[in-house]
């Protein structure tokens, strides 16, 4: 196997992590075709090298040096597999930018993904944490996921039911590095209804009849709201929400409300509610805090930021401090959302 010719030694990932940390991969390889995944993993195993997988780097905290092989997932291509009056099936390469896929679907009059506009990163990473925003999760549209199973060393197609999707979670997240996703198969039904129950969208479209709201109008609304609320990683390093919104039993919420009447929560199911982690962090006085080269965003307390010159250790120390305070104040364990890579 003549793989080593396209291995890139001492490869800088500073432009490939939205926190903007200085990171060097011992070796990197651009994966532009599915078959390279299997070849690279065989090579890594034969040479006893650790490996990791990177999409756009918008949901990872990377150490300064990444040992072994880093697979840069750059597989392109959006293919219409089938289409009829009911809907369209698409096969999308893992390296396609998520937001450009959303734009492509709208340009081709395939609505459905508009609420998920402007989420950074790649299509291949979307199933990992079952990306979601503004009342929609990607699992609503996933038919199946094509991946190389690095444990069985074979290709596998997992249908939606086998992907074990839940809030910011999936089979893939539960088994880090086992499944390397080459493509995601989506089904977008043609029957469409606007989903604007999320409070920001409700406000945006207040007074409008549902019939007059188009997918493009929702796309533009989501882009506008996100641009106002979330820091642009090109301006300031971040990975979006740093913590998941905790899901608690309604009895726990009732107890919390007695002590904190203003606590923000949304119904999750009949017995559970989702707490706004940003409110908890803000309430503990962290919003706008800066410590060294890292801090908490001054408009959205759920977003930790990197001002430049910092590293993963600094950011994780701040995250721990926030977790400890929230645990002491509310008896709630905040879960970190991005994936922390080991050095
Ligand atoms: C400003 C901002 C806003 C955001 N808003 C949202 C939001 O609204 N909703 C939301 O859900 N997320 C949000 N995110 C998080 C992030 O955009 C998503 O999690 C996105 O799917 C990550 O894609 P990526 O390609 O950058 O993945 P990466 O960060 O490169 O990787 C994330 C994880 O997926 C793994 N991975 C990546 N590609 C593959 C592959 N092909 N096969 C197997 N494993 C893979 C990596 O190993 C890593 O464990 C936001 C991030 C930012 C910076």
Automatic annotation (TrEMBL):
PROSITE patterns: FAD_PCMH
Catalytic residues, chain numbering: 168, 241 (proton donor), 337
Biological process, per Gene Ontology: cell division; cell wall organization; peptidoglycan biosynthetic process; regulation of cell shape
Entries under Gene3D superfamilies matching the protein: 3.30.465.10, UDP-N-acetylenolpyruvoylglucosamine reductase, C-terminal domain (3.90.78.10), Uridine Diphospho-n-acetylenolpyruvylglucosamine Reductase, domain 2 (3.30.43.10)
Keywords (A to Z) from UniProt: Cell cycle, Cell division, Cell shape, Cell wall biogenesis/degradation, Cytoplasm, FAD, Flavoprotein, NADP, Oxidoreductase, Peptidoglycan synthesis
Catalytic activity: UDP-N-acetyl-alpha-D-muramate + NADP(+) = UDP-N-acetyl-3-O-(1-carboxyvinyl)-alpha-D-glucosamine + NADPH + H(+)
Keyword Membrane: no
FAD-binding PCMH-type domain mapped to chain residues: 21-191
InterPro entries for the chain: FAD-bd_PCMH, FAD-bd_PCMH-like_sf, FAD-bd_PCMH_sub1, FAD-bd_PCMH_sub2, MurB, MurB_C, MurB_C_sf, Oxid_FAD_bind_N
Pfam families reported in the protein's UniProt record: FAD_binding_4, MurB_C
GO CC terms: cytosol
Pathway involvement of the protein, from the record: Cell wall biogenesis; peptidoglycan biosynthesis
EC number: 1.3.1.98
Subcellular location: Cytoplasm
Record family assignment: Belongs to the MurB family.
Task of the protein: Cell wall formation.
Name of protein: UDP-N-acetylenolpyruvoylglucosamine reductase
The species this protein was found in: Polynucleobacter sp. UK-FUSCHL-C3
Gene from which this protein is expressed: murB
